[in-house]
Amino acid sequence: MDQLRVEHLNKIFKSKQGEVTALQDICFSVRKSEFVVIVGPSGCGKSTLINIIGGLEERSSGSVQIEGKDVEGPGADRGMVFQGYSLFPWLDVQKNVEFGLKMKGVSKAERAQTAQRYIEMVGLENFAHAMPDQLSGGMKQRVAIARTLANEPEILLMDEPFGALDAQTRVVMQESLADISAKTGSTILFITHDIDEAILLGDRILVMSKRPGTIRDEIEVTLSCARDHSALTDPGFLEIKKRIMDMLWEEMNLSR
Ligand SMILES: Nc1ncnc2c1ncn2[C@@H]1O[C@H](COP(=O)(O)OP(=O)(O)O)[C@@H](O)[C@H]1O
Ligand SMILES: [Mg+2]
Q1: Closest CA to 251 of 215, 217, 208
Q2: Do 137 and 40 have their domain in common?
Q3: Is residue 57 located within the same domain as residue 144?
Q4: 85 pLDDT more than 80
Q5: Do residues 148 and 242 share a domain?
Q6: What is the domain count for the chain?
Q7: Ligand 1 mean position to 242 CA, how many Å?
Q8: Cα 29 to ligand 2 centre (Å)
Q9: pLDDT tens across 207-231, in order?
């Protein structure tokens, strides 16, 4: 069954300078536990789309439904992870991860237990009492992911979550996210501009056109090889990569 359904979604930004159509007639759906990745040229409306689904931005027309109910604002059913880590610098790792649970009034013992489970899942069990400024960028982003997971949302919305990380840390994070996704069965909608990352992580990839953003292509990722760095040279992987790159080049008006 479709958990998330986006139908004929349009977004027009209005300002003194005029109108900008950011999204045009976007239609897609995501099944429960599916990992869907969105790629597209810079400025095509990816963040706008995920922010509308997250309830942080209003749509101009069309509909966004989760489990058949219209999205009318932010909600505990969706958890968002952005490129910036946005941790509370005055709270240690565990208190950062517990934050949402505390707001919900979960008891101290229960939130400690839940936080520990997710801190372990992101591999930071030895850093539960470290402060954010003692952590590397990759570790901070792990805390941000654990904090979102601790709220146990139905859907994870991730907007270029690894965009600020160095290449090596990124690979490690990709592998742990694939692991987390398998362990939790969470539904994930993930934006990236890294095509390798899209193919390694996605069950399905949506390719957007340049602004006004539309869905240009939809690719089911079926690879016979393991989804790790060894896949980068797999013929099936390369075929998908070429298909996406050709499309993005075309969108950017470059010919080869
Ligand atoms: N609050 C806003 N007001 C006006 N225009 C906006 C606003 N937010 C985004 N845009 C415009 O909408 C388009 C899509 O932006 P965005 O969703 O951030 O793209 P992406 O994430 O794909 O790079 C861009 O042209 C951007 O300038
Ligand atoms: Mg963006």
Answers
A1: 208
A2: no
A3: no
A4: no
A5: no
A6: 2
A7: 27
A8: 20
A9: 999 999 999 999 999 988 888 888 9
